[in-house]
Structure formats: C-alpha cells, structure tokens
Amino acid sequence: MRALNCFIDDVYNAQKILADGIVPADIVLESANYLGPCAGVSPRFGAWAHICGSDVVRDHNGQFFVLEDNLRVPSGVSYMIENREITKRVLPELFENYSILPVDDYPLKLYETLVALSPRARRRPNIVVLTPGIYNSAYFEHAYLAQGMGAELVEGIDLFVGDDDCVYMRTVDGPFRVDVIYRRINEDFMDPEALRADSVLGVPGLIRAWRAGRVAIANAPGAGVADDKVIYAFVPEMIQYYLKEKPLVKNVPTYLCMHDKDRDYVLNNLDKLVVKPANESGGYGIMVGPHSSRETHKKFVKLIEKDPRNYIAQPTLALSTAPTYVDGAIAPRHLDLRPFILQGKDSWVTPGGLTRVAMKEGSLVVNSSQGGGSKDTWIVESKS
Amino acid sequence: MSMLSRVAERLYWMSRYLERAEDTARIVSAYNHLIMDIPKGAEPGWDIMVQILDAQPHFEQRFRTVNEQNVLKLLVADNKAPCSITYAIQTARENVRTTRDVLPEETWELVNELSLFAQEVAPNSVGRRNRHAFLAEVISRCQTINGLLLSSLSRDHAYRFIKLGRLLECADMATRMIDVGVGDIAERADRFRAVDPLLWGALLQGLSAASAYRREVGPIVDRQAVVNFVFLAPAFPRSVKFCIRDIRNELGKLNGSEEALKVVGRIWRRLQRLNKQAMTQAELHTFVDEFQMQLSNLHEAIEAAWFRADRQ
Lengths: 384, 312
Prior knowledge:
Low-confidence stretches of chain B: none
Structural class of chain B: mainly alpha
Low-confidence stretches of chain A: none
Largest sheet of chain A: 5 strands, mixed
Structural class of chain A: alpha+beta
Number of domains of chain B: 1
Strand content of chain B: under 5%
Shape of chain A: globular
Number of domains of chain A: 2
Mean pLDDT of chain B: 88
CATH class of the largest domain in chain A: Alpha Beta
Order of helices and strands of chain B: HHHHHHHHHHHHHH
Radius of gyration of chain A: 21 Å
Oligomer: heterodimer
Number of helices of chain B: 14
C-alpha cells in the first residue's frame, strides 16, 4: 500500500519511476485511469488510496499470492462485519475457547483515518459519505458506514462548490461546509466540470475544490491509475524501487499481452490461463481458460489481438477451498480473502476480512455480482 | 444537528402522501355510505369525486363513462394516477426508503407493509363488497404510523417537516370536503333539499369530525354550521384553523421562515374574515377555490425556503 501510494504520488508529480524506466511511461500516461486534472496535486501524507481492498488467494501448496489491489471504491466491508455478527449469534460456543480479534471497529478506524485528512483543524470535522444513490448495489453499505461514523449520507445534488472553492452541503439551515468526502462513486463521475461532462451523480467544481486543498477526498481522484491489472504486474518492482524492500506476499505470475513474447504464449496456451481485461471490476469480461469452450477461446483471441494493452493472463491457480454449506450439505468451495487496508496518517489492516466464496462447484469466480457468497474469517490470537 | 434539504423534502412528502392516502380513503368511504342512504334519482354524481381530487386528466385518459366502478378503479387501485390511494402509499414508501435512518426503526417496516398490503388487496377492493374493509384497513394503518411518529420521534427538524406536510395536506383535504358539499348541492334540484343533512353528515364523518361536531355544535346538521365548524373550530385538530395555527407554530422554529410566515399571515386573515358570515353557494365555492390557491402558495414558500437546490 505504501509503495502504491508512492507510485500514484510519483506519476502525478515528478514521474521518477517512469523516467527511470521501471514502469513503461506509455502504459501509465495513456491509461484511461490516468486523470490529467490530478497532476501536480500532493494530498496530505502522500496518501491517495486511503482505503484499499486487496484480494489474496492461497494455492495448492499453501502459498499466499496477491491477486489484485482494489483502489477505487472497494466494497464489501459491511459484509465482513455482518458475517461476524451472524457467526456470534449462530456459533456462540466457538468464541469461548478462542481469542478472536474483533473486526467491528472498522467504522471507527475509518472515521479516524478520515478525520486526520480534514483541511480544517476542528474537533469534529464534517465528514460525508458520497453515494450514487439508492439504486446502487452497495447503497446498504454506504448507509451502514455513514451511520457507523455518525456522518451524513449525501448524493451529488446535496453538495455544491462555492465561489471560495469550498464544498458545502445544502441543509435546511443554509450551507454547511464539508471537510472530508468519503466517496463511493467512481472517479470519472465525480465532477462533470473536470471529468465526464454527462455525469449527473457528481458535483461541479469538486476537483477544483480538492486541488485548492479546501476539501479532502478519499480515495483521492486519480488513485485508480494504480488499479489496473497491467500496472499490478509491476507492483513488486515498485516495492523494491520506493521502499527498498522485498515483497512479503508474492504476485501471481502475469503475462502482459502488450508484450509480443507474452502475447504469443497466451494465445497458444489459452486453455491453461485465466484472461482478464485490465480495467474492469466485478468479475466482468473474465475468461477462465480450462472451463471455457473453444468458441470462447476464439472470441478472446480476437479480443486480445484487437487491443493487447487491455488484456493480461495468469496461470489458473488451484485456489484453496473451505467447507461450505450448500443445499443442506457441506461441500468444498473455492475462495479468496479481501482484507481492508486504511492508510493516511497511520496504516491499519483489518484483522480479518471479506472472504468470498464461489458457490458453484469447481468455479473460481468469487465475485458477488457473479453469484458468489461470503464467509466470516478469523485471526486467532495464539497462546504464547 | 442540521438536516439535508433533500432529506427534509422527502420527509415532508412522505408525510403529505400518507395523509393523502388516509384522507382519500376517508372521502371515498364517506361517499360510499352516503349513496346507499339517498333515494334513487337524487344520488350525487360520481364525477364530483373526480373533480374534488383533481383527477380529471387521469380519469379521461383511462375511461369514457363516469360511473361508480370506473371512479373507484381510478381512486383506489390505479398505480399511476397521483390522486389514487395506492399511488400515494407507493410514493410515501419511496420517500421513507431513503430517509429511514432519521425515523424510528419500525417506521420503514410499517410503511413497507402498508404498501405491500395495498398492492395486493387494492385491485380486488373496487367492488362494493370488499371496498369498506380495504379503506378501513388503510385508514387504521396510516393512523398507526402517525401514532408511532408522534410517540417516538425526537422533536427535531425531522419531526417539524413531517408535521408541516401532514398539516398542510390535512387543511387542503378539509377544504376539498367542503367543496364536495357545495358542488353537489348546487347541482341538485330543490325537491331533494331534504337529503342535504345526510350529505353534510357524511362529509363530517369523512373528516372524523361527526362526534366532535355533535358535542360542540349539537345534533342538527346544516350547511352553514358545518362550514363554520370545518374551517374555524378552535379545538378540533382537523379544522382548517387548527392546522394553520399549528403550521405557524412549527414555522416559527425554523430558520429562514419569514416568507412562509407572511403567507400564513394572509391565510389567517382570510379565515378571520370568514367569521360566521352567511355566504351563498357560489360565494362559498369561490372562497374555497381562493383558499386552496393560498395553501398552494404556502407550499411553494416552504419549498423555496428549505428544499430548492438553487436557493443557496
């Protein structure tokens, strides 16, 4: 996370890593995720991605790998907390014999992270959660976190930017200044003035206010530049480059279709690989090679040849399984783990996380938008 | 703690629509009783119901003949017409859905259950046999929700905007009731004068005002006394005067209420002038019309002061 934030801060400012040729400049600067209006900004603590959900998997040898880092608007944290609530209710006996680290203080930790970002020194800065509205599939979580932090849940129309470049919310007692926005809308929809002009969800002038340092936004606009499956392949190099450290958890080997050698390998071994578009989330547009038909393979050959920059491939990992209750019986199902990482003044990782389960037998796709389920996960304190 | 304008507006509309659902159920129910009591040939026309509830455009879109069946289809079970009970309930539900965190926990459940009930039962409640049970259930569930808010909601902005919505809708419906009587009687021939007290009695019931009227005014029901009671009764909570006085109290607790209070002042003076004077039917009709215009001005003043996005 620290390395990723260093990377984002670097590419929007000095661009050293690009100059040193560690990461090819064109894949960063030509990416749809690189937002021009963010260049030259230095958010406090050098933190752009304040909230990150990293997906971790374990292979057949028990080795952990990082699958990806979600830096835009990672969701699912409310499921982590609710799953624990339910486990406590259904299996209270288990909690007698183990010392299990609690996860339900997440809203409080998030609150502390956000408070530290406030441009005004106040005892209780005005924090808001910006949601696209009731029809968003994660609306429940937005409301949940807002309530947990005692923050106002706002939509784009509730906010406006004044002539003084400050952000205000419209209340029945008049304008009320906002210090920190925890945004749960995609960055390209945030500000029709600076980004997508057709956005009706955003707040005109928001980027202007943020650039002027009058409001803090988490995650900062532009953070998505590091949330790209091609950039992901360079994360180990970033850790080495910025922190002079070796990564503790490995990346999954990744083939970049933009490189001729990698592309040839991918096109000849489609039946062994998982192919992913570089810039999608929610498990859309993914092909799991061994589970796909010849027609699908052919379709992906065309897609990759047409736009190699936008595709990566990884070996199909034998993801670990856990016993799962399915149709009245216990059966093994594949899963991954998403711990949430907060970074600002301090760093903090949830002692636990959202464990996502592929409910279909043999399936490796765990995304909830593709029918996946979830589980509670414990970090148990060992007796020493 | 202040409140987002958007949240305040949704609470206000939730409350207006709940009151509208309840009052429409009352009017339909009262009319329903009335038509069974009145001799053949003297029945008031069903088109009055359509006029009173501002339902002409929607009615004409769907039906050609004005009869009991069609009018009730529209007012009870039409999901798309803003004058119908089911539409009012649906809209109230949509408004609670996004404001549930400022309301007592059970509010959402009660409103959601009411909405599910209406969706399921309304289509089969158009006929005379099932109509009464449905309307009574709607009224009772609305009263439960109002009772919950009255007993468990903190007296903060949320309560204030909910109260404003309910009072304004209530005053508006009371004036519409008077219009039913005026409109009907004006159209009827003199030989049926004898049924007038029946009609006014039914209207009082529509406002749940029958027993309050009997205790305060007496058992004899005549037009002038009913008009005076509905507009001016100082202690009856559904009288227009009572609603307006309460609106003035609530407005006084909000910042930026100057314009709205001016409109209330004008409404108040008009009510004072009504004082006990005898009016012809035509005059009364004009009075009610103008009064409703003023209520609509009051709504606009509230909207401009606290809800409108472009005001700041």
